[in-house]
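thread: overnight batch results

M.L. [08:02]
morning all. the overnight job finished for the chain we discussed friday. pasting input first so we're all looking at the same thing
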Amino acid sequence: QVQLVESGGGSVQSGGSLRLSCVGSDKIFTDYCMGWSRQAPGKEREWIGYISRFGDTDYANSMKGRVRISRDNSKRVMYLEMSDLAPDDTAIYYCAAQSRWTCFLDSTRLPDYWGQGTQVTVSS
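M.L. [08:03]
and the structure it wrote out:
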């Protein structure tokens, strides 16, 4: 059974930093492109970025320069490091196993598997 479990969410002040983690099953970390997504209150879910099986990354234009995604396949963990956070970054953050064959930032595309999400709240 595929499982993705996020952790590291919480409350942070504006300008602060946060690192989220996502632990997954062996199958996921061997075979999948992994991504982070978020959904703010009243807004559509959007992709933040992805990391391929080989470590290649790409990020949404709105997030470039403030986020970094990394993965440690041996530990089955993916990370999302965020800096210079603002109240607009308040959202539920989800990790996802996007696909075995491709990576994507198109918000209309759905991944094969989602985590349960972790809340990030940024106060001004």
